[in-house]
Write a structure and sequence with these properties.
Blueprint (H helix, E strand, L loop, with lengths): L1 H21 L17 E3 L7 E2 L3 H4 L1 E4 L5 E9 L5 E10 L5 E4 L3 E5 L4 E7 L7 E8 L2
Parallel strand pairs: 1-9
Antiparallel strand pairs: 2-4, 3-4, 4-8, 5-6, 5-7, 5-9
Length: about 140
């Protein structure tokens, strides 16, 4: 009985030490990416080819005459290639609830081109927006 208990104890200790060898040493920190001062999010795979020109002068929010939230921004093709992107706007109210989730729109770029994009909420409940830019499929 003692031999069985000792063998079991030794096997248990061995399994615990083997498991601890396979785990990473210390905590793993996530890679931090700075958040731009913008309502536009560009997917990481486009980071080298698409940019947002100076945020302070071209990203504008205002109300349309009929009271709808509107946002204007620019996208820049930083490459020497022609390509297409999609952008989708999600408008929220003052509580953060989604009031207008717009379908992705396709936009085409020539090399080094800067394009102005305007998105407008379909109703007067929107008070903020988030725009997601991704590669066109």
């Amino acid at each position: 009985m003692i031999r069985v208990l000792s063998a079991t104890s030794i096997a248990f200790v061995f399994l615990l030490s083997a498991a601890s060898c396979s785990s990473p040493s210390g905590p793993i920190a996530p890679m931090l990416v700075p958040t731009p001062n913008s309502k536009v999010t560009i997917t990481p795979d486009l980071a080298d080819s698409v940019g947002l020109p100076d945020v302070s002068t071209v990203q504008i929010t205002h109300q349309t005459p009929d009271g709808r939230f509107q946002y204007q921004f620019q996208l820049q093709n930083k490459s020497d290639q022609h390509f297409a992107l999609t952008y989708a706007a999600t408008f929220v109210d003052s509580e953060g609830a989604v009031v207008d989730d717009q379908r992705p729109q396709r936009i085409y770029f020539t090399p080094q081109q800067i394009r102005t994009v305007v998105v407008t909420c379909s109703n007067s409940d929107g008070t903020n927006v988030r725009v997601q830019v991704a590669p066109a499929n």
